[in-house]
Write a structure and sequence with these properties.
It catalyses: L-arginine + 2-oxoglutarate + O2 = guanidine + L-glutamate 5-semialdehyde + succinate + CO2; 2-oxoglutarate + O2 + 2 H(+) = ethene + 3 CO2 + H2O. Belongs to the iron/ascorbate-dependent oxidoreductase family. It comes from Marinomonas foliarum. The chain has 324 residues and is an alpha+beta fold. The chain has one domain: Sandwich (Jelly Rolls), CATH 2.60.120. The chain contains eight helices and 14 strands. The strands form three sheets. The protein has an eight-stranded mixed β-sheet. Strands 6-11-8-9 form a four-stranded antiparallel β-sheet, with no helix packed on it. Helix 1 packs across helix 5 and helix 2 crosses helix 5. It binds 2-oxoglutaric acid and fe (ii) ion. Fe (ii) ion binds next to loops.
């Protein structure tokens, strides 16, 4: 692949304003724009999504307070103590791009709190369980849980627009959306070093594992998206009040790559500390993911064998975190 520079193509911006009250026709129009963006880039921005700015600001504020804590405090809630991969992920813990140095980012994983009696916890389902919260930041939990709930509802709506865009009934992904694995990841990227190791980056080139990712990023920029059209990296700069949405591996598998789960990476060249908050909507763990028959033209074969959400998620965590 090419250097760390980018070309100037821009990702589409889709305004969702009023989507909840939209007529059938308006929803069809919106879904057609989403479909086009998914085919061309696998990435798009959304505005008019209805998530309150004050909620986003409070979450960013808790996030920066968390990463400012002394290392020894953060390490007390290292995700290695959690059966459900919840908690602190130290700097360089993950290598998203095989064969390159580990990612220059630290993180904090949050999901819905599931009691030990929850059937999915009893069944030892992947990433279902309890969070680990920092005792120093009592406000993080209510803000993060509020955010998780709101984002989950937004993703359900987006999945129904994706269904429409594929000429499927709008409730086609209903079962996938039921009792989903939904993960919030607070991320902190130190500035890119002046003399980085070869190929060292904030976040190595990767595709996202789940259904949809909705990314909130601060004003520093640094996200780059691979364009198969121009065969080069393009910038996905922050646009105030928007989310960057991208298609994950599940949707690529359903559509036989008609909708692209696109490579992306982060290089924090801003010289500042960068903060971002991706929300990963991965769906119901038992859901089978195999090519949707109407997404397979007569002369094509499915590119991927059938899998389940859980199987794919486990494989991808093992691949990028090794045996940790
Ligand atoms: O921080 C970002 O801008 C992107 C993070 C990302 O791609 C991920 O966590 O999967
Ligand atoms: Fe990603």
């Amino acid at each position: 692949m090419k250097s760390q520079n980018t070309t100037s193509t821009t990702l589409p911006i889709i305004n969702l304003s009023g989507y909840q009250q939209a007529s059938k026709n308006q929803k069809q129009e919106l879904s057609a724009k989403i479909g086009e963006a998914c085919r061309e880039f696998g990435f798009f921005y959304i505005t008019g999504h209805g998530i309150e700015e004050s909620l986003q600001t409070r979450l960013f504020s808790e996030s920066s307070k968390f990463f400012d804590l002394p290392s020894k405090n953060k390490l007390k809630i290292d995700k290695k103590f959690s059966k459900a991969n919840r908690g602190y992920e130290p700097l360089k813990d993950q290598t998203l791009e095989a064969g390159t140095p580990p990612d220059l980012k630290e993180g904090f994983y949050i999901g819905f709190d599931h009691s030990p009696e929850h059937p999915m916890v009893k069944a030892n389902k992947f990433n279902f369980g309890q969070n680990q919260w920092p005792t120093e930041l009592p406000n993080l939990k209510p803000v993060a849980i509020d955010y998780l709930k709101t984002m989950t509802s937004l993703c359900e709506e987006l999945m129904s627009l994706i269904a429409l865009s594929l000429n499927l009934p709008d409730d086609y992904f209903h079962d996938f959306c039921h009792d989903p694995l939904a993960t919030l990841r607070l991320l902190h990227y130190p500035p890119q070093p002046v003399n980085p190791e070869e190929n060292e980056k904030g976040c190595g080139a990767h595709t996202d594992f789940g259904g949809l990712t909705l990314l909130l990023q601060d004003e520093n920029g640094g996200l780059q998206v691979w364009s198969h059209k121009t065969d080069d990296w393009i910038d996905a700069p922050p646009i105030k009040g928007s989310y960057v949405v991208n298609i994950g591996d599940m949707i690529a598998r359903w559509t036989n790559d008609q909708y692209s789960s696109t490579l992306h990476r982060v290089i924090n060249k801003s010289g500042n500390e960068r903060y971002s908050i991706p929300f990963f909507f991965s769906g119901h763990l038992d859901h089978e993911v195999k090519c949707i028959p109407t997404c397979l033209p007569e002369n094509e074969q499915p590119k991927y064998p059938p899998t389940t959400v859980e199987k794919h998620m486990i494989e991808m965590y093992q691949k990028t975190y090794g045996d940790k």
